[in-house]
Please model this.
Amino acid sequence: MLRIAVPNKGSLSGPAAAMLHEAGYRQRKESKELVLFDRANDVEFFYLRPRDIAIYVSSGRLDIGITGRDLLLDSGAGAEEILQLGFARSTFHYAARPGTASGVADLGGMTVATSYEGVVEKHLADNGVAATVVHLDGAVETAIQLGVAQVIADVVETGTSLRNAGLETFGEPIMASEAVVVRPTGAPTDEPEVQKFLRRLQGVLVARRYVMMDYDIRAEHVDQAVALTPGLESPTVSPLHHEGWVAVRAMVPTSDAQRIMDELYDLGARAILTTGIHAARL
Ligand SMILES: Nc1ncnc2c1ncn2[C@@H]1O[C@H](COP(=O)(O)OP(=O)(O)OP(=O)(O)O)[C@@H](O)[C@H]1O
Ligand SMILES: O=P(O)(O)OC[C@H]1O[C@H](OP(=O)(O)OP(=O)(O)O)[C@H](O)[C@@H]1O
Ligand SMILES: [Mg+2]
Model:
């Protein structure tokens, strides 16, 4: 049986449960449930604080966890990411009032407030900068107004929180983060149960990122058309009853689908259709 840690709160929690549900796993019905056994799939889910997940997984008591890359690195726990899940994307930046600093090298002697002191202390040390790091649990942007720090280091998504506090980022981003699947460092990923779990999540990612495209085209243009729709491996090309025409079927990235349809139309393709993919195993 696989034992899997799932975020119980915050930005990771809803999308993680939605992805597991799409992958065919039972998920909890109410937020007070902390453990759920999915008998049909022989998987036990533990709903834990996102910050604690890498620590539980590194202990080896849980086989797999879903957390944020930034939380994994901040914990310093012996766990490693084995799959990127594409949600809870953010970047991690230093920020301050305009004119305070233009890069990490300017931070010597300053005070930096953050909820991610593991990441920040390492980044300062890697850059040879001696600054004081103050830990705050959240709402870090306010630390500057209240005089607790001159600089903050925090998660930025839209930048709204920073703008509202009159702050701006400076220097290079410290890291880019997204939700990831983690395993204890060095644990094998080729175990059948782990592979099945990863294939299910990869199936959800494919279903979200691709649509199936079908079209008819004159046989003499099929090579040009297939160059636009190469598929993941190779498109299916079938003869049509109407002589000189073929039907093509290929997966295309959802984000490019409209542009590809326009270009196929210009090549002479007709009956161009896209349909959603509900589930996939590649
Ligand atoms: N506004 C945001 N947009 C995208 N990802 C975010 C955002 N805020 C936090 N994250 C990501 O979510 C994870 C943090 O989850 P966590 O539950 O600890 O904090 P949270 O989502 O800020 O919730 P809260 O602070 O309310 O507990 C990190 O990986 C972080 O990069
Ligand atoms: O760039 P934005 O789109 O504004 O998002 C970033 C903000 O979101 C998170 O805060 P959250 O709402 O989780 O509050 P917290 O600071 O208490 O964690 C994060 O800590 C930033 O403050
Ligand atoms: Mg937060």
In short: The domain at 2-89+178-189 is CATH 3.40.190.10 (D-Maltodextrin-Binding Protein; domain 2).
